[in-house]
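I have a small job for you when you get a moment. Would you make up a two-line entry for one protein for me to read? No commentary is needed, just the two lines. Write everything out right here, beneath this request.
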Amino acid sequence: MTVRERIENTERQVLSPRATLVAESRGRERPEEPCSIRTDFQRDRDRIVHCKSFRRLKHKTHVFLAPEGDHYRTRLTHTMEVAQVARTVSRALALNEDLTEAIALGHDLGHTPFGHIGENALSIFLPDQFKHNEQSLRVVEVLENGGKGLNLTWEVRDGILNHTGDSLPETLEGQVVRLSDRIAYINSDIDDAVRAGVLKLSDLPLEPIRRLGTTSSERIDSLAHDTVENSEAGDRIRMSPETWELMDELRDFLFTNVYIGSIAKTEEDKAVMVLEALTRFYLDNPDELPAEFRPVDETMLPVKVCDYVAGMTDRYALARYREFFLPRSWMVD
């Protein structure tokens, strides 16, 4: 018996009947020889961690653009926080932690530079709205590994695509990630907004803070406990209606006081200008695209340009903008 087979047998014995067993996965689009020491979900997690898109998350904005300070969240630290919350909940519910972690680590691979505003900036060049969850799926299916994709299992791809939007993931592990994403970003965004001086703790809505906790760790703990307690049976991962309402009150508060119109968001118009200018430049100058992003079919040029721009880090986008649109220093001997 291989190590992988032993792990698969252990899953059958210790995981909940509701868990997704790796041995029963719907598999990959391209069949592969199994690994002798890792399950397919473990291999998916490793492929995500080692891919270039994952490394670039460390230089992509989460909420606050180019903050002066080392302790603000980036898209990478947000991803790690989601994975931590999701694994805690999955373990408590005896679900498949490897699947949960792979989905969590891959869920934001398609995010644009400068946070969610990049989605709107790129959407004007495409026939349909640019959505980061769909782009995350495109990254792992098409763009990574020199255009071959990562060939992940169906369950991981389903969880990545449906971590947000109208459709729920089909696995409970994917649903755990979907809810953990919201738990993580609401509380980290409060923390970063207070650090930035955009909010004071006394500004926060009284009832959610009184009921859930005064610190991020207390609130995350309360929300995780409520999720586990209300998801121990049935085919859905959920919170109690009362706790969901409290969390939603915090989210609505953030939209009003942080995400829209706060002083921390005053640079967003400039970020949109940078992304729109870069996209137009590459549409007009496709030879400037890296070879792997030059389409064979010219009708695909807008998609390929948006693939390239969406994959940029904040600082790379700014560097290309300076190169293409700002005067350079020069000297004549």
Notes: The radius of gyration is 21 Å. The domain at 38-265 is CATH 1.10.3210.10 (Hypothetical protein af1432).
